[in-house]
Batch of 2 targets.
Target 1
Amino acid sequence: MPFASVTKIADAEFPTRWGQFRILGFEGVIENPAACNDNIPPPAVRVEGAVALVMGDIHSAPPLVRIHSQCLTGDVFHSLRCDCRQQLELAMALITDEGNGILLYEQQEGRGIGLMAKLRAYELQDKGLDTIEANLELGYEADCRHFELPAQILKQLGVNEVRLITNNPEKVEALEVAGIKVVERISAEVPSEPTNERYLQTKREKMGHLVN
Ligand SMILES: Nc1nc2c(ncn2[C@@H]2O[C@H](COP(=O)(O)OP(=O)(O)OP(=O)(O)O)[C@@H](O)[C@H]2O)c(=O)[nH]1
Ligand SMILES: [Zn+2]
């Protein structure tokens, strides 16, 4: 999905529990974005936001990079319906241990369907549908995300080779297609919980994620 523009909005100091980062805000403008729901026409222009947390020297070797998709329920409330919060903590710890790296946090809540739609999908999952079936029942595609914005941000940061923390082969492929070489994939697998076992099973069996 081509961006008409990707603009750095801000760049500030960012102390965290894990260590000292810089926090950068980016906005990408897409003209005529693709539809993601049969019943909801897309806007003429969509603005996507993403945050980059940058630690240390990211240029002397391919840095550790995590592309993390927003999950309010997991990231903020530590939900055990999914594994997002544990993955976020894993990525922060890996980057901090190494002393350099980039965490790209994209505002593609609910695999791009938005928070309210994700909560409606949860209702359907409570009635027995899996994550993909619930999206489809609501008229959405299984996964409405694309990873063009993180790729463009990496280019703006002068990073063309990365070691990517993910279990999702689509993220690897999306970066490669955008001209960012993934020299290594680092597993983002975290221990499962009884409450997210089915969620992980669907990722493994229907979405091709590299989890056991
Ligand atoms: N539509 C929908 N989205 C969900 C659901 N549970 C979590 N998400 C979203 O899924 C996104 C995370 O995607 P995942 O498929 O868990 O993992 P990934 O980012 O593709 O892959 P990794 O890099 O391995 O973590 C976040 O945006 C969550 O908000 C759900 O039940 N339905
Ligand atoms: Zn989540």
Target 2
Amino acid sequence: MSSGGSSGASGSSGGGEGGTVSGAEEFDFAAPATDQSFENALAKARDGARLTVDDATELLATGTGAAGIDPVRKEAVLEAADRRRREEVGDEVTFVANLNNNVTTACNTGCLFCNFKDSAHAFEADSDVEHAGFTKPPAESRAVVEDALDMGIYEVCSVSGLHPAFALNEEHHEILAAHDDPASEVNYKPPERYATDPGTYVEQLDAMSVGGVHLHSMTPEEAYHASRGTDWEYESVYRELAAAGLDSAPGTAAEILVDEVRDVICPGKIRTDDWVAAMEGAAAAGLDVTSTMMYGHVETVAHRAQHLKVIRDLQDRTGAITEFVPLSFIHQNTPLYRRGVVDSGPSHAEDELVVAVARLFLDNVDHVQASWVKSGDAHGLKLLNCGADDFMGTILSEEITSRAGGEYGEYRSFDDYVEMITAIGRTPVERSTDYRTRRRIDPDDGPHGPRLGPRADGTPLLANRSSDGGRGGGAVGTPPADADD
Ligand SMILES: C[S@@+](CC[C@H](N)C(=O)[O-])C[C@H]1O[C@@H](n2cnc3c(N)ncnc32)[C@H](O)[C@@H]1O
Ligand SMILES: Nc1c(NC[C@H](O)[C@H](O)[C@H](O)CO)[nH]c(=O)[nH]c1=O
Ligand SMILES: N[C@@H](Cc1ccc(O)cc1)C(=O)O
Ligand code: SF4
């Protein structure tokens, strides 16, 4: 049998603070053996043949016949993926000048891997529950984006908690409020109940879509929230969001796209079919999307392989996916860890194999991202030699990974990027969100700054802004959290 299970799964549940995790007891975390051999799977990968789920399972496990990752086999998989990357996209490593502007941390969905959210109850006007979260009204969101545009960014990435007062628009507010018991039936409470009104989704997007910035927002889970309690199609919801300024949608909320895993780690979230339907709706509305997988918690390598198949099938149908973003689970402050369901996140070897197998399996997705937020600089650079060709963005502000216990800061400058990418012998390239506009950067022509932004002239992003140069120096683009929320 298998090497199968994620290194992070302790196999136990409950016990620790905060109670048990339903479903974790019965769940069979071991990966089943496949009918394929590791050697055959590797040969197919080297030949460029389309891989099956069994092939991917064998490659991710470096063979399901023995426990643990075999270091020699792992190197063979990484080498095949690195070669494929060079053939497909060459030696360029891309990155984007962007800002994360997350609007609210209020959320009742209760995902067990997430420490970004704060119980929405704490945000109510008459609540005396202390919390460190925030809600930014639309005007504040706009001010934050305006400020970052002046610095030279050209993408805003905005993902938020599912605030119960959020609705798509005024009509949606009326539909939600008309329920007999809106709080329990459709997770809705009117804005008046809260210390800060988040506005509608349309108002938030309209506020952030300013000055020619590319607005990357509205995950499938958020699109579900923006249509809850109605029979609206995802396509029409995304069309309305696009009319308000949305340019592309992040494919987070994917986690592991296998329902038996979702039942354990995010029972309150939409299921796999709904996630796919939302992404198809975004694509039908003419939007680009990204795709993600959050791995290294309770899932097996077989689940990872099944997830990759869902993404590849979606891309066969839509062609709308610009990149695959592996999200290495950060465990320290999460309910999954505190309750003893997992004892760690994925190992470095697992990170490397996920990137490599994504490159080999997703033959229809051009770009695979390495993340300095999740992995840090050194390991992030290593992942660029395992099949990845994109190194994320400047982001200026980070809340999801840092609240989960990540320690790699919330900003990288263009000079950091140029230095790191040239150090591994690759070519640094500034890209637009959709990768269609690219600018190769001459490493000798520093100091470096963005040039693709509507207000970018090559000046380093934080010039004249931060005495410490900004690296890891606290939220830059975002004001302190609304303590009064
Ligand atoms: C925090 S949510 C925000 C957007 C929205 N609430 C949703 O769920 O789509 C965005 C994504 O962050 C990722 N994430 C959350 N907690 C994480 C953790 N501890 N480690 C790694 N990724 C995490 C998950 O993939 C999640 O879908
Ligand atoms: N990987 C993470 C990202 N990636 C966002 C990218 O910077 C960019 O928005 C995307 O590549 C669109 O093309 N953002 C995070 O906040 N955290 C990550 O871990
Ligand atoms: N990187 C994702 C978005 C994302 C945002 C925040 C995260 O913590 C993780 C991922 C995308 O571009 O689609
Ligand atoms: S992952 Fe998203 S939906 Fe789940 S608890 Fe966190 S913020 Fe809420």
